[in-house]
Design goal:
Elements: H1 2-14, H2 23-34, E1 39-48, E2 54-64, E3 68-75, E4 83-87, E5 90-94, E6 102-104, H3 117-120, H4 125-128, E7 129-137, E8 140-147, E9 156-162, E10 168-174, E11 180-191, E12 197-205, E13 213-223
Antiparallel strand pairs: 1-2, 1-13, 2-3, 3-4, 4-5, 5-6, 7-8, 8-9, 9-10, 10-11, 11-12, 12-13
Length: about 240
């Protein structure tokens, strides 16, 4: 009996159970506290260059489940009417009067700046990553995440989350060899509609882009479920009809 208990306890720690938490369940809870499973949102993205020049974009987004998200550009005028679609690891960009949607990749950026397409069309972290290790320190969780497959934008993440609210504070995005690609900061907790309490500002910087910063500001997030037909290539020109 004593030997069985010893093996059981060791197994729990080996699986990453810190403070009684199930790591995978914790990551899913962090996802849900950050965003409803299906929702709509409005956000502004600001790209800031080293000389202080800024370019701003406003997007309308719809997400459904773990693997479907579509976004419509509302401004600037030069980009109005463009839309982007993500289905799992696959992404497309639609440009009015150009023809059919074109394939894009997660590491590209349709707006430039430090945020790439995977950041702009973000899915649940639990859909793309598994927890390798869970630590607790100074009122925070630190989750060491590993990509589920090679098509994910970042091989590894180090995710710090508030232990009380269970929402992200900071994420370090890393290569397979643990080289830092960028750091993402979650700031300014806001009470949105429907009891959604989460950061309203996300900022990022990268050692690969010295002096450049990108900021994402959410003005509205609410739960909303739309049909699967919205997340198709043929619907991309008509996303604006759902606003």
């Amino acid at each position: 009996m004593k030997r069985f208990l010893t093996v059981f306890i060791v197994s729990l720690f080996a699986a990453g159970y810190a403070g009684g938490e199930n790591p995978d369940r914790l990551l899913l809870e962090i996802d849900r506290n950050l965003n409803p499973e299906s929702y709509e949102s409005y956000k502004k993205i600001i790209n800031i260059e080293p000389d202080g020049r800024r370019k701003e974009y406003i997007l309308f987004n719809l997400k459904k489940g773990k693997d479907k998200i579509i976004a419509l550009f509302l401004s600037p005028a030069s980009d109005r009417g463009r839309s982007t679609l993500r289905l799992g690891d696959n992404m497309w960009l639609y440009v009015p009067n150009v023809g059919k949607p074109i394939r894009i990749t997660s590491l590209q950026s349709v707006i430039g700046g430090v945020f790439n397409n995977a950041d702009i069309l973000a899915l649940d972290y639990s859909a793309e990553y598994k927890v390798e290790k869970l630590e607790t320190r100074n009122g925070e969780y630190l989750l060491h995440l590993k990509a589920r497959n090679r098509s994910v934008a970042y091989d590894r993440l180090r995710l710090w989350a508030d232990r009380g609210r269970k929402i992200p504070i900071k994420i370090e995005c890393l290569t397979e060899k643990n080289m830092l690609i960028k750091t993402i900061y979650f700031k300014k907790i806001k009470n949105f509609s429907g009891g959604i309490v989460r950061p309203s500002v996300i900022e990022t910087e990268s050692p690969l882009y010295k002096g450049y910063r990108s900021i994402m500001i959410f003005s509205k997030i609410r739960k909303r479920v739309v049909g699967n037909e919205v997340f198709t290539l043929t619907f991309m020109p008509r996303v604006g009809s759902l606003r």
